[in-house]
Specification:
Layout lengths: L1 E9 L10 E8 L7 E4 L7 E8 L6 E9 L7 E9 L5 E10 L3 E6 L12 H17 L2 E3 L6 E3 L15 H20 L12 H8 L10 H4 L8
Antiparallel strand pairs: 1-4, 1-6, 2-3, 2-5, 5-8, 6-7, 9-10
């Protein structure tokens, strides 16, 4: 009997937890475990620990499957990561950072970076193929107008998967940044200015405060009249 210690972490953002059932399957080089229930209740920022009992050593753990199932109401769950400790003490990390919605199964590879040529097991080759096909289906492009850059082939960001949409946390940070900059420009006399600039140095005094700030992603979180790209 081989016993694996598993720790499942939920993200700390609002509504990351769930009351839906979450179970896990460990996949190793020599075989895989049975599907084991983790919990029926996950709270934001908290971890759940459990033991997975297997009839034999699974070998190096290369993949895990997270199964989400609901009985009545849907309650999305954001998985931060999963850590698996083998009987010999080896720790395997599986970074996830994804939303699981509906009745679904998500496969997550072990966290060490590998290239295509490093995938010796057929199960890893198949996982990479399915992941590529899913990405190609999610990121479909169209021409917004002649001469414009291509944009996502959707009418609204709400047609996209939750993991592609701009996060609520990021959107709030972006909105807060705009409010802060607007207040700064107002106090500096920029917004209500009725006269011409006296010099380029005077302009630099105002705009240097926003230079280099990270405001990436606004094309995704804001419904602007130009294409997403």
């Amino acid at each position: 009997m081989a016993v694996y210690k598993v720790t499942v972490a939920t993200g700390d953002m609002v509504e990351a937890g769930t009351n839906n059932s979450i179970s896990i399957t460990l996949v190793g080089s020599y075989g895989e475990s049975r599907r084991t229930t983790v919990s029926f209740l996950f709270l934001p920022g908290k971890e759940k620990s459990l033991s997975v009992h297997c009839g034999q050593d699974l070998g190096p753990i290369v993949l895990i499957r997270l199964h989400k199932w609901r009985l009545f109401l849907e309650d999305a769950w954001f998985c931060k990561d999963v850590r698996v400790t083998a009987p010999n003490g080896t720790l395997y990390r599986f970074p996830c950072y994804q939303w699981l919605e509906g009745i679904t199964t998500l496969e997550v590879r072990e966290g060490s970076g590998k290239k295509l040529v490093d995938d010796k097991l057929q199960i890893l080759k198949e996982h990479r193929r399915r992941e590529l096909a899913a990405r190609q289906e999610a990121y479909r492009w169209k021409n917004f107008a002649q001469g414009w850059p291509r944009c996502l082939n959707v009418d609204s960001i709400f047609e996209l998967d939750s993991n592609i949409q701009f996060s609520c946390t990021r959107a709030k940070n972006f909105t807060g940044f705009l409010i802060f900059q607007g207040a700064s420009h107002f106090l500096s006399g920029f917004l209500l200015r009725r006269t011409s600039w006296n010099s380029l140095d005077e302009m630099r005094t105002i705009f240097s405060r926003t230079r280099g700030r990270d405001i990436g992603g606004c094309l995704v979180c804001c419904p602007l009249p130009f294409p997403l790209h």
